[in-house]
Design brief:
The structure is a homodimer.
Chain A: H1 2-12, H2 20-28, H3 50-53, H4 66-69, E1 73-74, H5 77-99, E2 104-110, H6 114-130, E3 133-139, H7 145-157, E4 163-166, H8 176-182, H9 194-201, H10 212-223, E5 232-236, H11 243-252, E6 256-260, H12 267-272, E7 276-279, E8 297-300, E9 304-307, E10 315-318, H13 323-326, E11 332-333, H14 340-359
Parallel strand pairs in A: 1-11, 2-3, 2-4, 5-6, 5-7, 7-8, 8-11
Antiparallel strand pairs in A: 9-10
GO biological process, one term (chains A, B): photorespiration
Pathway (chains A, B): One-carbon metabolism; tetrahydrofolate interconversion
Function (chains A, B): Catalyzes the oxidation of 5,10-methylenetetrahydrofolate to 5,10-methenyltetrahydrofolate and then the hydrolysis of 5,10-methenyltetrahydrofolate to 10-formyltetrahydrofolate.
Chain lengths: ~375, ~375
């Protein structure tokens, strides 16, 4: 396999051979404040190695012992998000100075849900902190589809708005598909439009926006110098907001991806073989210690609220991964709360900035 | 897992419990000449079974011994395609009688390639056999992008044309992305438009068209009463025409899908665990006998031409699966040639008929 890669790198990327790890470092050395390079730059040519095509002997699985030397990193999402946000703020200042414009993000929220309110407030505060102009539209729980579509259409047409997001979930009487497709693809900074998902799936294409949760995962893997290509990745859960885009993006990064869902038989066994585990099932502590391979890199996208009278809001958050069991086995893990949450929000800001730069042709 | 399924079926599909197999038979009993039901009808609710959420003991993998009783079926693509085509022809006759219209398919071919010519001829002959009006545009190898886009635009506007396909591969000087996106999504019967791929990937969505190779795979699995849900499926290769849409569609059918590509380590071991194997690597005889689990259902999408002076065309076709080794182990396999090829073409006719029915609001 390696042989094939070296050939490829020599022919297409650089004069001297590079292994995949160095290749990604080269990509990452581009002066970008987030690590995720253009997708098409990770679409490697499908070179099948001779020993796969004409095997001498059946291969035997290799085990990863490097984990034993590692101590587990608990990933501090807040610190990474702070770093990204400060660099977004710098870019926005530069934009303001040179063209007198700033990015704008519109958030639409329907009805009252304590969790939605919390998420929206976090997004708006984050905008404020980096200098993104924010617009908030609050509609009543019983608003009609036409009312909502009207608000979306206004934001689509507003030249000061470069990103439009509708906070999910919607009340039952509104069609999510209809509402989400009403957001202009050019302003769909959540990246949920089927056109973006299609371009995320298709090698050789670069979607206008990559969903924030997926960007967050790749951001973490690249920041922690985790080799993705050729590694086994398991994505547990396949929501269209988190699991699906993450599995598609990891695939684009040339991981060998298996998506585990509620109908998967023996998910623990499949997960135990993974070097990279992303959990998005929405089940508190679903992923137990015996599910995990020693040295795995674990990204917990779960945010499950558990009633708790001792907490100010009356609940506390837990992830999909049983943290206290995982911490003893894995090389790195994102805690809940304080893990992926802040980074995912900073990815929303990144998408909004990218959108504004595209619309103002500012680079 | 089963427990969860029964609950779901009782609540949402029928009053009496059904297992997944009976569920698909119910779907298939709809009076449709192809077996593939609307995608959203296979989007099952994500019910996590209690013994996964709170395991008593770590699960042990189950081995499938049913294979031992099976004799291997060599799937006769021509017979299945003939059956599908005769029913398409009946529908088209009905359409002609009642509204005086027939479906129309436009095929655009650029330059001279013996393989492309063969494929196009097969498609046009098939149209003729079922009563689909066909339109063929031949452009020279050195045609400009504007010339090609002009031809596409004419077919997009032509009300007698319900499907437009551009034969791939294109000459190097033409942008495949630009050309393919020029085909109106409503007439993209190949189903390659990112909008269709996105809607294929997103649970709860039904794309206007499903790529023919993917429809072909599901068609075979359903015709052979293979249970897909919860089964391990391995797709070897990830081309945007074959491997990608197949992996997305198998996922929608609730298989546990792993996509194997050139950078996958130890592909034979991963493939050996699969109940359903789809090969689309474009490597003659890549999948050897020791890659396959006993009783697996093998769909060989490979069509590799091997120079052969003794053959009339100067070459013969072989698949990605080593047929003579596979036949001794698997429960069913598609031969090359004569396997998936004819069925895939009949799926193109199906997509064209569906498109015409949609445009004429004829059911």
């Amino acid at each position: 396999m390696r042989g094939a890669l070296l050939v490829w790198y020599r022919n297409n990327v650089t004069k001297k051979p590079l292994d995949s790890y160095s290749y990604f470092r080269t990509l990452m050395s581009m002066n970008r404040f987030i690590k995720c390079p253009p997708l098409t730059s990770v679409d490697l040519q499908e070179l099948w190695s001779p020993d796969i095509i004409n095997p001498r002997e059946p291969h035997s699985p290799k085990t990863n012992n490097s984990a034993k030397e590692k101590t587990t990193s608990v990933i501090e999402g807040k610190a990474i998000a702070k770093d990204i946000k400060s660099q977004i703020a710098d870019e926005i200042n530069g934009m303001k100075r040179s063209i007198g414009k700033v990015p704008g993000l519109a958030v639409i929220i329907i009805g009252k849900r304590s969790d939605s309110d919390t998420f929206v407030d976090l997004k708006l505060k984050a905008c404020d902190r980096v200098g993104i102009a924010s617009f908030k539209a609050e509609l009543p729980e019983d608003c009609t589809e036409d009312e909502l579509l009207g608000v979306i259409s206004d934001f689509n047409l507003n030249p000061s708005v470069h990103g439009v997001i509708v906070q999910l979930p919607l009340p039952k009487h509104l069609s999510e598909e209809k509402v989400m497709s009403a957001v202009s693809a050019e302003k769909d900074v959540d990246g949920f439009h089927p056109l973006h998902i299609g371009n995320l799936a298709i090698r050789g294409r670069d979607p206008l926006f990559i969903p924030c949760a997926a960007r967050c995962c790749i951001e973490l893997l690249l920041r922690y110098d985790v080799q993705i290509m050729g590694k086994k990745a398991v994505v547990i859960g396949r929501s269209k907001i988190v699991g699906l885009p993450i599995s598609l993006l990891l695939q684009r990064y040339n991981a060998t991806v298996t998506v585990i869902h509620a109908f998967t038989k023996n998910p623990e066994r499949l997960t135990r073989e993974a070097d990279i585990v992303v959990a998005d099932a929405g089940i508190p502590n679903l992923v137990r210690g015996h599910w995990l391979k020693e040295g795995a890199f674990v990204i917990d996208m779960g945010t499950n609220s558990i009633k708790d009278a001792n907490c100010p809001h009356g609940y506390h958050l837990v992830g999909d991964v049983c943290f206290k069991e995982a911490i003893t086995k894995v090389s790195a893990i994102t805690p809940v709360p304080g893990g992926v949450g802040p980074i995912t929000i900073s990815m929303l800001l990144t998408n909004t900035l990218d959108s504004a730069k595209r619309m103002y042709k500012f680079s």
